Amino acid sequence: MIFRYRALGIMIRSITALAFGAVMLFSCKTDIKEVNAINTRAGLPEMSGENMELFYSDSARLKYRVTTPLYNKYNEENKKYDEFPKGIHAELYEKDGTMIGSITSKYAKKLEEEMLWELRDDVVVINDKGEKLETELLYWDMKKEIVYSDRYSRLTADENIIEGNNGFKSDQSLRNPVFNKVTGVIVEKQQP
Questions:
Q1: pTM score > 0.85 for this model?
Q2: Distances (CA, A) of 112 to 92, 107, 123, 182
Q3: What is the pLDDT of residue 5?
């Protein structure tokens, strides 16, 4: 009789383990999209760095030098871009190596394929003549070598101040700016 109770106890434990295993087997569900999202670390940068210095060149000639406290590179399916959440300081160079201007901002984003920069918050552009452009939003098209904005923009050149209440468009060296809804102060120099 003792043998029958032991066999019955082993059989009950086996059936319980089998039932528990079946419940676990059918209650587990694997969603492949969730697994892929975890594997690709969606929303996180592919590469990140602090106190970075980036060089952009064409045919071994330096075109732009960018320094930033924080750099993030994103390489998502539909979007490939570089983000500079703490801003940039960029220097632009002529073919002969002379610096032709600089751009600073507190935030920047560069769309990789379009070669288009979006600069925001206290954007300042200074060209080789010392002329200074200030705005809150600036787009810099590296392919076309132009800068433009649809926001209030202010250009200071010597004693002259030109303000565009609906933005402006210019070559990247600010040699030919065209302002929209212009106001400003222009000082005429007197000839001796």
A1: no
A2: 18, 16, 21, 33
A3: 46
